[in-house]
Design a protein that fits this description.
The chain is mainly α. It has a domain of about 40 residues. The chain is built from two helices and no strands. It is flat. The mean pLDDT is about 80.
Length: about 80
């Protein structure tokens, strides 16, 4: 899965503050990162509501998108499960 993990996978685990080969963060950088993550965490529900309202509004204004072209499907079989 690499370095990217979902929030649920990371809950309860200690936070990695540096990666191998990368200089460790200074205390000021850690505080700034935590502040930015807090702002994102607080703003996420509000932004989700804005996106949902915009989607509903767009469906009310134009229920059918005449310029929509569905994605092309390929005839190749799906890759085998890992």
């Amino acid at each position: 899965m690499g370095l990217l993990r979902t929030y649920r996978e990371c809950r309860g685990r200690p936070r990695v503050t540096s990666l191998p080969g990368v200089a460790p963060l200074t205390p000021d950088q850690v505080r700034t990162r935590e502040r930015v993550e807090t702002v994102i965490r607080i703003a996420a529900p509000v932004l989700n509501v804005v996106l949902a309202a915009g989607e509903r509004l767009s469906r009310l204004v134009e229920p059918e998108d005449h310029e929509y072209y569905p994605p092309r499907t390929t005839s190749a079989p799906p890759p085998p499960p890992k």
